[in-house]
Amino acid sequence: MLQAAWFWQTAYEQANPPVAAGPAPVTEPSGVPDGDLAVAHSSNDGSSSKMPALAFDLGAVKPGSIVDKFTFSVTVDSDPQAANTPNPAVVACLPTRLWPAALGGDYTDEPAVDCSTKVAPKIDGSTYTFEITQFAQQWLDDQNFGVALVNDPDNTSTPFQVAFTGAKTVKATMTYTPGTTAPPVSAPVTDTTSGTTSGAGSTGSSGPVSVPAPAVGDVPGAGAVAGNDSGGQPPQVAPPSTPQLKPVAKVSAASSAPGRAFWFGAAAFALLLLLMSFVLGAEPQPVGTGGGSRLDRVLRGAATDGSVLAGRS
Question: In sequence order, what DSSP letters do the residues of 199-248 get, joined into one string?
């Protein structure tokens, strides 16, 4: 039990609506033992002059769970001061908003209720059991506003009041199927440049790709897991490939010996010297006048100058 409350519209407030919230007149006792939860009907319409509300803590149930069954039971108080009526027209309905935890609170604080789906109790002696599976499912899927016990809206003539023992005696039972999370799957990759779809690990043209996220429960290959051959196998992720290394040719150090260009240059230079020697010796001279080539005359002149210098010394 998360919290409990009951709200009261006094006879004076019913006769003079609306009346600001305040304590009940001294002359109008509630007839509800301390700590009890009371339901009452005392008008000529389908409203309730007393209405309890209960809220249960479902924090341990994960979102997405399916409620298989939810029941709770309340017990009629046998205290003589409790004005209890046999077989009261009590039903369970959904509150439409949050409400304060007040015992004997003013009716202006009570929440409005939705009785489009109302649940009648199973009565076993003084025990009233309500099966409100659809309400509990709504608490999980939306907001937990609890449950309210009210006069059956179809009862517009028979007044009653029944007091149930306090919140500590309320018993609740719930069975549910826990919510599951879909296992991660490998989504197909769509190549937007070519419009083709390939599975994970396959090769294709490069370009921008879009990877749609799978919806919960939309798991490829689910039929195969359940034994349906039509489901196919789930996509497999290819292991990362290892680049292949190619042998590289051995690199040797460059030789210090002269290359072809050096030898071509040397041959050209030698040929040039040879041509120069032919040009210089192209004019023959008479022998008696110091004939010979110009190169011979230069060499003989150099030898003569050397002899003269030697004789003077």
Answer: -TT-----S-EE-PPPPTT--TTHHHHTT-GGG-PPP-PPPPPPPPPPP-
Total structural domains within the chain: 2
Q: Is 290 left (phi over 0), alpha (psi -120 to 50) or beta?
A: left
User: Distance between CA 290 and CA 288 in Å, rounded?
Assistant: 6
Q: Whole-angstrom Cα distance, residue 261 to residue 282? A: 32
Q: Parallel, antiparallel, or unpaired for β 103-106 and 3-8?
A: parallel
Residue 112 belongs to a domain: yes
- Give me the half-sphere count of Cα atoms (radius 13 Å) on the Cβ side of residue 229: 0
For the chain, the first-to-last Cα distance in angstroms comes to: 145
Give me the residues paired with residue 78 across strands.
none
Element (H, E) at 74: strand 66-75
The domain in which residue 306 lies consists of: 269-312
Specify if 35 maps to a domain.
Answer: yes
Strand 160-164 relative to strand 37-41: parallel, antiparallel, unpaired?
antiparallel
Pick the residue with more confidence: 286 or 82? 82
Give the global pTM: 0.56
The pair of structure tokens assigned to 257 is: 């010996």
Boundary of a domain, candidates 155, 177, 199 = 177
For residue 124, what pLDDT is reported?
A: 94
Of 136, 155, 177, the residue at which a domain comes to its end is 177
C-alpha–C-alpha distance, residues 3 and 31, integer Å: 22
Residue-wise pLDDT tens digits, 28-46: 788 899 999 999 998 889 9
Q: Is residue 170 part of a domain?
A: yes
Q: Is the pLDDT of residue 232 over 50?
A: no
- Is the pLDDT assigned to residue 253 strictly greater than 70? no
Q: Is residue 196 part of a domain?
A: no
- How do beta strands 160-164 and 90-95 pair? unpaired
C-beta separation of 70 from 133 below 8 A = yes
pLDDT (tens digit, 9 = 90+) per residue, 127-172? 999 999 999 999 999 999 999 999 999 999 899 999 999 999 999 9
Q: Given the structure tokens 């008479």, which residue do they identify?
A: 286
